[in-house]
Amino acid sequence: MIEQTVHKLQEMKLYSMAEVFGEMCTKPKHAGADASEVVAFMVEAEYDRRKNNRIARLLRQARLKMPTACLEDLDYTAKRTLKKSMINDIVLSNFIDNRHNILISGPTGVGKSYIACAFGNMAARKTIAVQYFRVSKFLEYMAAEKAMGNYLKVIEKIGKIPVLILDDLGPDMMDKKQRNIMMEVIEERYLIASTIVASQLRIGDWYSVFDEPSIADAIMDRLLHNAHKIELDGDTMRKNK
């Protein structure tokens, strides 16, 4: 009876439930467990397995530059004007549910990408979809999709990603096609999903990347609305590593 039940659970791909059921029915230490306890342990084990598998899948699909980056591991001792209270405020604001953006600026090597990826990692651990791009690669990807006639479908798909990370904005100015793509992406996501942007330029200087004033104003207005700003300063952390 026990073996048949374990086999049926495995056939239904309920592997963790099968393992717990087999153990609780055969190990003396579980002899006193009633039916409700057995079911509770089985369900918990299966739930945890599926959740962990989903998190692992989301992290693979996110393609984070630093997939193991965690907010819990942020270094607040380094001289880069990063405060724990600032990060806690963003987390407590439920920025994903509230569709807030996060804008990160600072010189090379102060950990902008790590912080952006840490927020992405946090989202994945909450089983929320994330996608990471370097801005230059993102624009190339979108231009290629446009050339193949898939642009509208891809724009719609990008607009629905709960957390989109665009790393390394600037310093080169975008041409007309690039800034139009950026405008359409930001417009598609405005008030619908969270966008995290990181750049070595100060946030006030991002306008220059888009070159054309009216487009720059439109993009920045949407990015800055409901945005959390992390403006870092200081020496590179790479030499310390």
Q: Characteristics of this structure?
A:
about 240 residues, alpha/beta, Rossmann fold, 2 domains, five-stranded parallel sheet, 10 helices, 5 strands, about 50% helix, elongated
Your description of this structure?
This protein folds into 2 domains: 2-61, no CATH class; 64-231, P-loop containing nucleotide triphosphate hydrolases (Rossmann fold), CATH 3.40.50. It is 52% helix and 12% strand. It contains 10 helices and 5 strands. The chain has helices spanning 2-11, 15-26, 35-62, 84-92, 112-125, 135-147, 151-160, 176-189, 207-210, 213-224; strands at residues 101-105, 130-134, 163-169, 194-199, 227-231. β3 (163-169), α8 (176-189) and β4 form a beta-alpha-beta unit. α3 (35-62) runs antiparallel to α5, α6 (135-147) runs antiparallel to α7 and α8 packs parallel to α10.
